[in-house]
Design brief:
The protein has 184 residues and is α/β, with parallel strands linked by helices. Helices cover 38% and strands 18% of the residues. The strands form 2 sheets. The chain has a 5-stranded mixed β-sheet.
């Protein structure tokens, strides 16, 4: 199994995430939240598929969620912006899960489950979590943390948020995708 990504690339992602979150953490002012317009349905490309194990060793595959709207969130235990978003994704899962939404967390921690399991024991999430490998991070073009991808019910990328999401804008995008998908 390949770890995400090579150490030097991981350090670059960590440095970028730290620098991007520094003003927020230091209280010097909030960084602008990441927004992304929904790509028109006819212009959406297929989301790269994956199958990775969760903490219990069960496979979590994007193909298993065909017919649902998927929020794929790349995060890490060391990323302050990522940790700020996690409760929002828990709320999205609670609010929209019965309407066909699934959140999938893809941790990029280089230490893998050794680091993620204890984190989840303290801060449980109500959605599946996998450890992102290099293939997944490359396929989605992960360059900075956090990153969130909205995938429509047909398995196509509808939006990509680079940085801490604008919670309200992401919520509206999710609602739009749920309605759009319900009324083809």
């Amino acid at each position: 199994m390949t770890s995400f990504p090579r150490r030097s690339a991981l350090r670059s992602v960590r440095l970028f995430a730290f620098l991007a979150a520094a003003p927020f953490v230091a209280g010097a002012g909030r960084s602008p939240a990441a927004t992304a317009p929904l790509t028109p349905a006819a212009e959406r490309s297929a989301a790269p598929t994956f199958s990775l194990e969760n903490a219990s060793g069960r496979a979590v595959s994007l193909d298993d969620y065909r017919g649902e709207v998927v929020v794929l969130n790349f995060w890490a235990t060391w990323c302050h912006g990522c940790k700020a978003e996690l409760p929002w994704f828990v709320q999205f899962e609670k609010r929209y899960g019965s309407r066909g939404l699934t959140v999938v967390g893809a941790s990029t921690d280089a230490e893998g489950w050794q680091k993620v399991r204890p984190f989840l024991a303290k801060k449980p999430l109500n959605y599946p979590v996998v450890i992102a490998d290099e293939n997944l991070t490359k396929a989605y073009g992960l360059e900075s943390m956090p990153m969130t991808v909205l995938i429509d019910r047909q398995g196509r990328v509808a939006a990509t948020y680079r940085g801490v999401i604008d919670r309200a804008a992401c919520d509206r995008a999710i609602q739009t995708l749920l309605l759009e998908s319900a009324n083809p």
